[in-house]
Amino acid sequence: xxxxxxxxxxxxxxxxxxxxxxxxxxxxxxxxxxxxxxxxxxxxxxxxxxxxxxxxxxxxxxxxxxxxxxxxxxxxxxxxxxxxxxxxxxxxxxxxxxxxxxxxxxxxxxxxxxxxxxxxxxxxxxxxxxxxxxxxxxxxxxxxxxxxxxxxxxxxxxxxxxxxxxxxxxxxxxxxxxxxxxxxxxxxxxxxxxxxxxxxxxxxxxxxxxxxxxxxxxxxxxxxxxxxxxxxxxxxxxxxxxxxxxxxxxxxxxxxxxxxxxxxxxxxxxxxxxxxxxxxxxxxxxxxxxxxxxxxxxxxxxxxxxxxxxxxxxxxxxxxxxxxxxxxxxxxxxxxxxxxxxxxxxxxxxxxxxxxxxxxxxxxxxxxxxxxxxxxxxxxxxxxxxxxxxxxxxxxxxxxxxxxxxxxxxxxxxxxxxx
Length: 419
Known about the structure:
The active site is at 281, 362 (proton donor). The structure is a single chain. By secondary structure, this protein is mainly alpha-helical. It contains 17 helices and four strands. Strands 1-2-4-3 form a four-stranded mixed beta sheet. Strand 3 and strand 4 form a beta hairpin. The longest helix has 45 residues, at 340-384. The mean pLDDT is 83.
């Protein structure tokens, strides 16, 4: 079998498996009854609104994924990728730009692929925001604010992405058989640069405030000191400037660590419940979950770059995709298709470990005396999630998400009877 056809076959098989999980999730969302932990907690009216919204969102997701797999399959099967590569080179020639420079050629090629992004991401994002979310009263964006957000994302991708692409191409062209090690080193340094200073820098660009002196502040500091967590600052951030499922987190290096709280967490929960959420986060730190996750991610990244190297060194594989040369960017694109089944499996296993870490952190909070307040806080946080999924399929969740849902955590607490 032709290598391209085999890779395409793997991609379609993965799509069929994920569609099976999507249908399981769709069936779970249609369940007309509340999960046992939320009976009497979530009103029937809010449950019905959540159910209607997530069913419609799930239908859109199924259509979105179908469009993606059809476009990706067409790009591979009909030789559109090599045609884009050829056309981008001709464009550079007409623009009097050196088409022999692989960096320039690659950037022009990626620009040609923007049409796929517009169809598979932007168009669906517009429909989801201004039709689906608007219909259910969730859209708070205007056309102007949405357009400005997309423009900022595009500019950021160009400003940051272009130097990264150029650096990776230079590394591939210079380095010999130790390419995976060098690529991993580059990625490792990039991860340190972006994850270590970023939270500190973000405080300057976002509306973070210091938690004022109060009884809650004293309880948090007391808990942190009791666990030998060297807290330097306690900050509060607006809910609008964080992922929807993030209510508290810790960051920092050496003896200058920060604890950051969501403002809605402060408004919704009592002091002991807030401290219980912090105890969960400190459990991750105390049990070295963050370090283990980072190390695991780096090992997986090294293996992934090793796979990329095998792909980029295979002339026959490039020929099967219609390329008589071996551009670096296509090596990465082909490797993404080639390693999808293994990557999905490893991601699933990683999620299993991550779920175990979350349950361990919940148990740690219990051992510090905050079991009952944590359960109460999780129930209140579920109420904060505007029309979030309430009935979900566990197979779908563990395959797609690195953390269990609030409902699943509450159910685990009830089953363990450790309160």
